[in-house]
Structure to design on (105 residues):
């Protein structure tokens, strides 16, 4: 769902063992909420080696904030599909994608 007033909300489904992400943004801020399954969110400030990790699951609903300038990924650690709600402070613009690939963890 995309709106100029409220940014962008996505629903992402990840299969068992799949890693999604491994990119960072200059201006986009994202928030992840896993509502089904279990996973691991990893992020790292660009230019730094320290990896920050958060285990996430439907059993403990919490929003993980991914700030700008941090490469990030999410890994499905469970045996079932993982469903993640992702909010971004700005809509995706294919003419200015603000997405730079770099391993997060």
């Amino acid at each position: 769902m995309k709106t100029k007033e409220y940014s962008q909300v996505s629903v992402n489904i990840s299969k068992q063992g799949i890693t999604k992400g491994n990119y960072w943004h200059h201006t986009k801020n994202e928030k992840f909420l896993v509502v089904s399954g279990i996973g691991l969110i990893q992020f790292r400030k660009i230019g730094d080696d320290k990896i920050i990790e958060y285990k996430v699951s439907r059993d403990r609903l919490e929003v993980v904030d991914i700030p700008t300038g941090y490469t990030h990924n999410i890994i499905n650690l469970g045996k079932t599909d993982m469903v993640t709600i992702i909010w971004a402070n700005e809509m995706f613009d294919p003419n200015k994608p603000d997405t730079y690939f770099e391993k997060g963890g």
Observations:
- The beta strands are 2-3, 7-14, 19-24, 30-36, 38-45, 52-57, 64-66, 70-76, 82-88, 100-101.
- The chain has no helices and ten strands.
